[in-house]
Amino acid sequence: MLSSFNALCRGQDAASKAHHCANTNVASNAMKSSVYSKTMLIGHTELKAGDISMGGVYGEFIPNDNYFKYIQKYVWDFWTTRTPDYKIWESLRFAVQLENGFYLHPMGGVTFDNIREMPNEPIRIDIAGLSSQIIDDFLANDSSRPFVENPWVTISIEQKIAFEDELQKEIGKKGGLLSNLFKSDSKHLLTNVNCAALCKNESNDDVLFSIYDSKGSDKNFALVHLTWTAKKESNPKWPATILYDTFDSFKYEKMYPDKTEWEY
Description:
alpha+beta; 11 strands
């Protein structure tokens, strides 16, 4: 069984080559994006398509002071250590948010091409393992257009972290890319699935998560009604969860009906 840990390892190699393999069939629109570590903004970038077959995008990373103060040392260690500590890398919880509020959820992870010996060189950010649909939607089209409609709204980085942490508590597991290496006796649908919060319904506690697991499921999104108990639910049916194959499925089966109800 392929694990998220192996995907992250392969993603490091794939991402480092992404900018050499641009797919000419995809428009060269750049995705203006903000880059975070946990809730801390560490810089910005404009992402372009790289190796589409590997779900790769890349761009020049423009760091802020937070990157130099708190993150750069980990990036340097990541590239200079023969065996990188992926648990430390994972704990940094990098997140990339497009200008329309959409958060990328790359199976292959995020890396920064920044080495100690070349401090004045431009820094490149590489992201691997995005779905082709996400790349098509936001590279071939205007990445600034809204991706949700009322009552669904985009979320702040603070909300994203809070939703993900709460979900981990309610299904009884620790979060992160490596979490699905460790089995749980819980029977909840999302126990051994990696989840990243995307948006929320303003009228209730419904949150949409982008998901993937090591078994290659065709379900890529989960609508979750969080209970906000801050602890593992005794009934594996909670938090209530509905799975969707694609974001389009979610839009037509849930978001648009919610919009109609909201307006009338």
